[in-house]
TrEMBL record:
Keyword terms of this UniProt record: Oxidoreductase
Protein name: Short-chain dehydrogenase
Keyword Oxidoreductase: yes
One Pfam short name: adh_short
GO terms for MF: oxidoreductase activity
Length: 95
């Protein structure tokens, strides 16, 4: 499987701290993309990602934001933060 480099592209994924979501993040970072990950426990999520991706040497960028999809106030705050910090999104993965 060939992964094409796509620096400058931005992906948002909910979850991603385990299972298939974690592997998707690994591949997106391998494509040198900026990956915004929304999850309930950002510290635990970063630890999980670090187990499969060398974030210190990755050309991709991981941004982890707090998000509880069961809480609409949290969803709104996450969406607002994305809107304020990024002009566009190229990929949205609702995991």
């Amino acid at each position: 499987l060939v992964l094409y480099k796509q620096p400058g592209r931005i992906a948002v994924i909910t979850g991603g701290n385990r299972g298939i979501g974690l592997r998707i993040i690994e591949k997106l970072l391998g494509c040198e993309m900026t990956v915004i990950m929304g999850c309930r426990d950002p510290k635990s999520a970063e630890k999980s990602v670090r187990q499969v991706v060398d974030l210190d040497n990755s050309k991709g960028k991981l941004v982890i934001e707090q998000l509880d999809v069961g809480n609409l106030a949290s969803v709104r705050a996450f969406g607002k933060k994305i809107q304020e910090n990024y002009e566009k999104l190229d990929i949205l993965i609702n995991n």
